[in-house]
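Our collaborator T.R. sent over the components below with a one-line note: 'Predict the complex.' Nothing else. No constraints on interfaces, no templates requested, no preferences about which chain binds where. So this is a plain run: every listed entity goes in together, and whatever single assembly comes back becomes the starting point for the next discussion.
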Amino acid sequence: MAKIIALAGKGGVGKTTLCSAVVRILSENFPKERILAIDADPAVGLSVALGVETKETLDDIRREIISKAEQGEGKEAMELLGEARYRIFDALTETDGFAFLAIGRPEGAGCYCSVNNYLKEVIHMLSREFDYVVIDGEAGIEQINRRVMEKVSHLILVTDPSAKGIQVAGTIRSVADELVMYEKCGVIINRVEDMSVIPCLQIDGAEILSIVKRDEAHAKNDILGKSIFELPVTAPVYLGAKEALEKLGIIDGGKAE
Ligand SMILES: Nc1ncnc2c1ncn2[C@@H]1O[C@H](COP(=O)(O)OP(=O)(O)OP(=O)(O)O)[C@@H](O)[C@H]1O
Ligand SMILES: [Mg+2]
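Returned assembly:
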């Protein structure tokens, strides 16, 4: 069973940025292990951060299966599920260090919960095939509430120093206590400009994993559309993600130099 690492938090706090750094650091530390990155945010972004192309999305596959079922091709539900399994492996984008899957952007209102239900099953299924699954979550609490994140073993809350960000992270943590079977949960405080505010920041029950300063190299990379793999290893985003993985016990402190 894989270690399933999910990043959650308010919109715009740096989930995708830190998620991509987590994927890079895992791929550097565990070149022989199977690593899967999942963009679970319908607003997309992780593929660009990781510098990969999205082939097909989970929603494409879901719609294909539904339309086959509706056309009455005479297949049993179980058969369709087996076929989906094969199709999902087909849809993964493979790179040297990791595989990638995006949930996609469901069309029309009301579709999103069904793709979320589907995502939950797919996370279960793929966690048996990979050693590490890293999930860039949708902003806010919805995917925690819908138990999409149920099997997550390591929950990384991301926030900026704003009261709103901290509040959302705290709410996610308390809901996750009921709905996520996590082993460890911690918080990364991102894009901190004034270190003197740090002592005032805390979230009950969540250890501070790292504090990431405003990262000029990352901001520049972002403007130029460069991936996380082009960020220097001295950049705050890289170092903050590394420190968080060390504190969670996922990588060895001495190993990732
Ligand atoms: N430490 C940092 N220093 C400078 N810029 C940062 C830092 N972290 C994130 N950013 C920038 O802030 C913006 C939002 O970051 P990101 O997209 O990672 O957030 P998000 O939580 O995934 O947002 P969303 O909720 O919209 O998916 C991006 O332009 C990103 O490059
Ligand atoms: Mg994002």
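Summary for T.R.: The pocket of adenosine-5'-triphosphate (ligand 1) is lined by residues 11-17, 41, 43, 45, 139, 190-191, 212, 214-215, 218-219, 222, 236-237 (CB under 6 Å).
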